[in-house]
């Protein structure tokens, strides 16, 4: 092996450790009973955080909202993206470049800006219309759908452009020549060709809608989507139920990825002709076992079994023991700290540092584990930064 | 306009009147209603006063530069260093994150395009995509877990005796830099990979054969091919990082604000939309000018982005 | 099968009435003016870029002529879209629909005309029988061989009984053996269905073997229209003479002309030959004399001259001999006389000659370069 190969391999391993390390650690923390997500010290193996997650009403409401918004976005962004791709395919090159730039811009514009501009525009429009229309327009669902479409359509468009580039335009010409009307050629030749891209565009737009935070946090107004609910939960103190959520998402992703791999392999085996078919495909038993549907069913069964066993796990005894242990240590520490502070006060006459606000709050409640802050905190949260900003100028 | 009607007619001839009408309506809606009007409306708003609802439309409701003025200057006429510094620092940080991503992604993009074969290449692609199925918020959260005061890094570091008081990685923005660099790796690797893949591998072998050292092969042969991909990826990473909101909110130190957070504050906490709009306009213009400048410098067109 | 009743046969002619097609400043087709007869196998032959495909797309309705008219069956086709014309086009790469089965491909023209599913299936099977590929209707297009795809494309084009079948170099993607086989087959199908075939090709072998008549095109201009043997034996321009088949061109000055014979003075001597294209020359006019390699005969008394054998290319039945006379290298084709005969070896002097009727004098013009 050459030095370059060794170096490249080592680099790849380091790189993928960086990609997966944080996720793996997060997954582990989902099963530690410690109230702050961490790996060490390990307290008790627990599945309680999953129950906690499903019990979070705000997240569950957000999930429903996300689904409603996601469906709306997919229904509009996919056709709009397709229209964009088709328009680009017919324009002369100079105009095409201009339109491409305009349509791709929403991906680059900061999501915050998109969100703001959406609520500002529709706020004005709805004020102008008033009444029932105002209520119909100026609500979190409508605004979020409209705001997300702006850039999500561009994702769909990129998928369609890639597919359209592989379309042989003589196919449409052949259909026309054989007597099809342009509309028939579009429906019977181009659309079926685009079908797989429509599927993946729908998938990508749904995901992008679901995941979006920067735009949605503005447009959703007083409602919340799954992602904004998640963000506000993370900002206001973390607990391992979020890790539990990560475990669920990662599991779904892995099942999806493995099923997809099975589908791809099957396709290759079927396309490749007899010679290239693997022994797995030749043997009827293994062929049935590697069928995408079977692979999916097996994976789902495994996940279901593990979830069922997990739901029966009871860690309360262990947790009670840990809690008792903690309380004991806390009492000890408190006594020690008190003694220390008294000693300090008598020495220097300084007051105790203020308890942490804002981010620190997450650590504050943990008792013994909480560190003594290294520096005095500002008044809490982000407020400090705004101290110097003058109130808006009144109109003269 | 002539070209537009021509394109419309070409569409109608090729795909039918229905399809042409659909394309025309959908694209117009997208460009005008979803892209242009909101930006214009925001621009308009940024020149207005923050008035209570009953005063809108009255004489008091006229255009003003005050929102922009107070971005640059304080009430006493001195420079508003607070906001200016935040903007500057946001752009600088975004540039640093972009640079970090270019550096760490280039080798992987190259290995993926020309080193890895078969199963290894497949696994790498899946491995690159998998983390991005997980919600952006959760990815940031993972770095909170990693770098928190009682996080894995601190616990391990202290147990190994490297330091004995928990290091506040959040306040030092270490977590933020890690989180942001992590967040958009995929957007950097794929354009790069697409560009490098177009390179005929025999060129690399030929250069090596002629005795060029590895770094020179990359500098002279691979990089020129990769350049459009790098610029495309870098543009996306820079814009998304500068416009990031979730990661700074979750991972940012309480005293180091991201410019988007300032905008967020004006909207959601101070309820001063005109001021927030003005700041959004500032962010938009700065980012776009910065990107256009970079494209000029590296001689790459916007059309390369997204490919 | 389209019923071709001889009593009431439809008008399947195509008339190109002073057709010009321009793209901006570029003239793709310049004043094409000809009639293709009902039931004819007609070929457009020319090098790539000569405008033949543009002309074909104009006949099939994908573009309109800038000037002039296209008439099919004596009806002006202006404003009639490709889907409304009685033409069917076989594309260069066939353009079979990969997402449909073979039968669905063939029945597609019927499907878009609202023919019932059952009837479509019946018709598809009938056409598959005609192209001698019964029972492959449920296969995918990707499972077919090159020749099978070719035949399926023809069946699809014939499904709606077009009056005119347009073929855009459909054999170019096939290998040599299959190509030769398909020539015969195409010709047979054409005679069976009686449809007018308009065939586009740059391959003169295809054009000459299959066609009733051939139009030779160069740079947008139709240089000559005629039966294959006329094109070959009686070229009317230097381009046709040099593009179709091998030819030796000798430059010279006309000494005298009498009716359709003339004498041309060349550096190799003065030769008598037929005047091509019915032109008139004055003594002293420059002209080209074309004589085909197989018309140069050793020991021929008329138009005799001496040349030195410079090299040979042996190709089985034929021996290509290159002989040098002065500055000119001439190509001479000799039938392989087997072990009994010999053409000589390098440096030998050859006495050659040719019959005046078998050589053509043409005005100096474009010479087709070997692609």
UniProtKB/TrEMBL annotation, chain A:
<feature type="transmembrane region" description="Helical">
    <location>
        <begin position="284"/>
        <end position="309"/>
    </location>
</feature>
<feature type="domain" description="ABC transmembrane type-1">
    <location>
        <begin position="63"/>
        <end position="260"/>
    </location>
</feature>
<feature type="transmembrane region" description="Helical">
    <location>
        <begin position="100"/>
        <end position="121"/>
    </location>
</feature>
<dbReference type="InterPro" id="IPR035906">
    <property type="entry name" value="MetI-like_sf"/>
</dbReference>
<dbReference type="GO" id="GO:0055085">
    <property type="term" value="P:transmembrane transport"/>
</dbReference>
<feature type="transmembrane region" description="Helical">
    <location>
        <begin position="141"/>
        <end position="162"/>
    </location>
</feature>
<dbReference type="GO" id="GO:0005886">
    <property type="term" value="C:plasma membrane"/>
</dbReference>
<protein>
    <submittedName>
        <fullName>Binding-protein-dependent transporters inner membrane component</fullName>
    </submittedName>
</protein>
<dbReference type="InterPro" id="IPR051789">
    <property type="entry name" value="Bact_Polyamine_Transport"/>
</dbReference>
<feature type="transmembrane region" description="Helical">
    <location>
        <begin position="63"/>
        <end position="88"/>
    </location>
</feature>
<feature type="transmembrane region" description="Helical">
    <location>
        <begin position="189"/>
        <end position="210"/>
    </location>
</feature>
<dbReference type="InterPro" id="IPR000515">
    <property type="entry name" value="MetI-like"/>
</dbReference>
<feature type="transmembrane region" description="Helical">
    <location>
        <begin position="242"/>
        <end position="263"/>
    </location>
</feature>
<keyword id="KW-1133">Transmembrane helix</keyword>
<keyword id="KW-0812">Transmembrane</keyword>
From TrEMBL, chain B:
<dbReference type="InterPro" id="IPR035906">
    <property type="entry name" value="MetI-like_sf"/>
</dbReference>
<dbReference type="Pfam" id="PF00528">
    <property type="entry name" value="BPD_transp_1"/>
</dbReference>
<dbReference type="GO" id="GO:0055085">
    <property type="term" value="P:transmembrane transport"/>
</dbReference>
<keyword id="KW-1003">Cell membrane</keyword>
<dbReference type="InterPro" id="IPR000515">
    <property type="entry name" value="MetI-like"/>
</dbReference>
<comment type="similarity">
    <text>Belongs to the binding-protein-dependent transport system permease family. CysTW subfamily.</text>
</comment>
<feature type="transmembrane region" description="Helical">
    <location>
        <begin position="278"/>
        <end position="298"/>
    </location>
</feature>
<dbReference type="GO" id="GO:0005886">
    <property type="term" value="C:plasma membrane"/>
</dbReference>
<keyword id="KW-0812">Transmembrane</keyword>
<feature type="transmembrane region" description="Helical">
    <location>
        <begin position="20"/>
        <end position="40"/>
    </location>
</feature>
<feature type="domain" description="ABC transmembrane type-1">
    <location>
        <begin position="87"/>
        <end position="294"/>
    </location>
</feature>
<feature type="transmembrane region" description="Helical">
    <location>
        <begin position="91"/>
        <end position="113"/>
    </location>
</feature>
<feature type="transmembrane region" description="Helical">
    <location>
        <begin position="141"/>
        <end position="162"/>
    </location>
</feature>
<feature type="transmembrane region" description="Helical">
    <location>
        <begin position="230"/>
        <end position="251"/>
    </location>
</feature>
<keyword id="KW-1133">Transmembrane helix</keyword>
Automatic annotation (TrEMBL), chain C:
<dbReference type="InterPro" id="IPR003593">
    <property type="entry name" value="AAA+_ATPase"/>
</dbReference>
<dbReference type="GO" id="GO:0043190">
    <property type="term" value="C:ATP-binding cassette (ABC) transporter complex"/>
</dbReference>
<feature type="domain" description="ABC transporter">
    <location>
        <begin position="14"/>
        <end position="244"/>
    </location>
</feature>
<dbReference type="InterPro" id="IPR008995">
    <property type="entry name" value="Mo/tungstate-bd_C_term_dom"/>
</dbReference>
<dbReference type="InterPro" id="IPR013611">
    <property type="entry name" value="Transp-assoc_OB_typ2"/>
</dbReference>
<dbReference type="Pfam" id="PF08402">
    <property type="entry name" value="TOBE_2"/>
</dbReference>
<dbReference type="GO" id="GO:0016887">
    <property type="term" value="F:ATP hydrolysis activity"/>
</dbReference>
<dbReference type="GO" id="GO:0005524">
    <property type="term" value="F:ATP binding"/>
</dbReference>
<keyword id="KW-0813">Transport</keyword>
<dbReference type="GO" id="GO:0022857">
    <property type="term" value="F:transmembrane transporter activity"/>
</dbReference>
<protein>
    <submittedName>
        <fullName>Spermidine/putrescine transport system ATP-binding protein</fullName>
    </submittedName>
</protein>
<dbReference type="InterPro" id="IPR003439">
    <property type="entry name" value="ABC_transporter-like_ATP-bd"/>
</dbReference>
<keyword id="KW-0067">ATP-binding</keyword>
<dbReference type="Pfam" id="PF00005">
    <property type="entry name" value="ABC_tran"/>
</dbReference>
<dbReference type="InterPro" id="IPR017871">
    <property type="entry name" value="ABC_transporter-like_CS"/>
</dbReference>
